[in-house]
């Protein structure tokens, strides 16, 4: 008869200390990357909001100048008078809408800045705690 050979495979324990350290280091690295992406996204969002607010402030200033120029040419300056210029009424409504938009954007900017500060503070904590801890990865010899 022929000899039959069976190959045994050894089960590698999934909770070996070396593997646990590698998994922990990998998770920590992924968490740090995620936090850095979040911080960068918050910074970009804050910069965009600041740019929008600056542009809207320039638009409000321009509307103020236009309103003042139209009022200088108008005979009636009382908004309740029927002969009050329609262009001034529409520009005034537009200016008030822009001011409301600026107020909403300022609130949103405060929230984004707060989130960025919280994320950067949270980013500092693991690095300080991780400074004491060193990760050593050693080759594992499997015996069967």
Commentary on this structure:
- With 144 residues, the chain is mainly α.
- The chain has a domain at 42-119.
- The chain has helices at 17-73, 86-132.
- It starts with 16 loop residues before the first helix and ends in a 12-residue tail after the last helix.
Topology readout:
Layout: H1 17-73, H2 86-132
Helix pairs in contact: 1-2
Q: What is the H/E order? A: HH
Backbone structural class: mainly alpha
**How helical, in percent, are the residues?**
over 70%
Taken as a percent bin, the fraction of beta residues is under 5%
Number of strands: 0
Low-confidence stretches: 126-138
Specify the number of helices. 2
Radius of gyration: 33 Å
The description of the largest β-sheet is:
none
Mean pLDDT across every amino acid position: 79
Termini separation (Å)?
28 Å
- Apparent shape: rod-shaped
Key descriptive features of the protein:
144 residues; mainly alpha; 72% helix
Short characterization:
With 144 residues, the chain is mostly helical.
């Amino acid at each position: 008869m022929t000899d039959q050979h069976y190959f045994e495979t050894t089960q590698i324990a999934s909770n070996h200390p070396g593997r646990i350290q590698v998994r922990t280091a990998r998770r920590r690295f992924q968490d740090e990357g995620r936090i850095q992406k979040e911080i960068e996204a918050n910074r970009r969002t804050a910069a965009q909001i600041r740019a929008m607010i600056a542009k809207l402030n320039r638009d409000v200033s321009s509307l103020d100048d236009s309103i003042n120029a139209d009022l200088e040419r108008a005979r009636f300056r009382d908004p309740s008078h029927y002969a009050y210029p329609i262009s001034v009424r529409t520009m005034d409504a537009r200016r008030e809408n822009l001011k409301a938009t600026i107020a909403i954007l300022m609130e949103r900017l405060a929230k984004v800045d707060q989130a960025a500060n919280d994320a950067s503070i949270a980013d500092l904590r693991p690095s300080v705690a991780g400074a004491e801890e060193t990760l050593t990865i050693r080759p594992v010899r499997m015996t069967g």
